[in-house]
Amino acid sequence: MHRSPALLAALGVAAALLQTAVPAYGAPQVAVRPLPKPVTAGGMPLNEALAKRRSCRSFADTPVTLQQLSQICWAAQGVTEMVKGLRTAPAAMALYAVRLFVVDRTGLAEYLPKEHALRTAREGDLLPAARALALNPATSGEPPVVLLLCVDLAALQARAGAKSERFALLEAGHVAQNILLQVTALGLVSVPVGGVDEAKAGEALKLPDGVRAVYAMPVGKAKPVP
């Protein structure tokens, strides 16, 4: 098939652009780590988890296992109905404005509910920065995981307009309560910290554009009382 010089030149330019383009956040080149399958039956009764839940600000430096992290992420936003993609926590118009990020010693990762996996966003030990956003490190010990509940209003604004912020914050509250009850059921502790400085969080953790941290939730084992 004959191709004109102009067409060949255009194809060459397009190929060059594809080779030099910087992958966007969330592109396939970013590492995705599948999580273990969550347990969806049994466990601590809900009434017991409600009775035992307490906010804790003193943590032992004990690792959170991958299975525990999987269970917590699923409780936060896991998909419970595959056809419609419904999740464990309700969201206005099922648009899901809340995005869950996990900070541990390996870096920052976003939880992908449909895949039940973690997608690496930043590598490196970001825990000191995340802990500083949530706690006084001098008195709290070193929680091995900090969860960030963030809001992204882009999808909501087209349908909810001025109410987008309100709906997103309500959704964050639903997600946070799920996390707190699941953490309790696993024998772990947490505290929902709502006074997060959005600008500092975005700068310290290099969050994606348009994503704002509204809750920081350190998770781990409670520090033994002397």
Main sheet summary? 7 strands, antiparallel
Strand order of the largest sheet: 1-6-5-4-7-9-8
How do the helices and strands follow one another from N- to C-terminus? HEHHEEEEEHHEHHEHE
Distance between the termini: 82 Å
Q: How many strands?
A: 9
Q: Considering DSSP H and I runs of 4 or more, what fraction of the residues is helical?
A: 25-40%
Rounded average pLDDT:
88
By secondary-structure content and strand pairing, the structural class works out as: alpha+beta
Q: Poorly predicted ranges (pLDDT <50, ≥5 residues)?
A: 5-28
Radius of gyration: 20 Å
- Work out the strand percent: 15-25%
Shape: globular
Per-chain topology:
Blueprint: H1 5-20, E1 32-34, H2 46-52, H3 66-77, E2 79-81, E3 86-87, E4 98-104, E5 107-112, E6 117-123, H4 127-134, H5 137-140, E7 145-151, H6 154-160, H7 164-185, E8 189-190, H8 198-205, E9 212-220
Antiparallel strand pairs: 1-6, 2-3, 4-5, 4-7, 5-6, 7-9, 8-9
Overview of this protein structure:
- By secondary structure, the chain is α+β, with helices and mostly antiparallel strands.
- The protein is 37% helix and 20% strand.
- The chain is built from 8 helices and 9 strands.
- A hairpin with a 2-residue loop joins strand 4 (98-104) and strand 5.
- Helix 2 packs across helix 7 and helix 3 (66-77) packs antiparallel against helix 7 (164-185).
- The radius of gyration is 20 Å and the shape is globular.
